[in-house]
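Case study 2.
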Amino acid sequence: MIYKLYIIVVCVCMISSCSEGDTIDITVDFEGMLENCSNVNDNTFVFFKTSDPSTRALSVNFTSTSFDSTPEIADISTTEPTSIPLSATNQFIYREFDTNIVGADYYCNSIPPSGINVTNELISSNGTLEISYTLIADNMYTRTVTLKNITLSGNGIAIRRELIELGSDTIEVN
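Prediction:
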């Protein structure tokens, strides 16, 4: 009888202590307008977008001597995207903030606004940034920023995505 009671207690403890873990629900793909800024002297660039409300942001920061945020027509290929491997210096970053942000103020100023705290951050450990162009009218192009084979990690979380379209903007070239 004691043995049966012991088995029942052990089974109840095992059933009540088993957990499938915390559900991690982070959507790293959301709607937002693609924006960008650069420091041409340092060959550094950032493309970013914020959610609505602006408490989440996706950004890709990179350094390149071959990329130009305001290219000439001769520098644009509509058949072959510009590919930039992500690394420790070229990073795709997902951030959550404790308050709304203005993306251009946060990403384009050398010193971001004060009073904004990052509550969650995931940084790419691999992947490729691709920037492609589509001609839409004379001297007008749609520029599309896509990330491929990305692994984002941080705070004990790892998220893998084969494709994330950061967004598109329209540029006029000379």
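Residues 22-172 form one domain.
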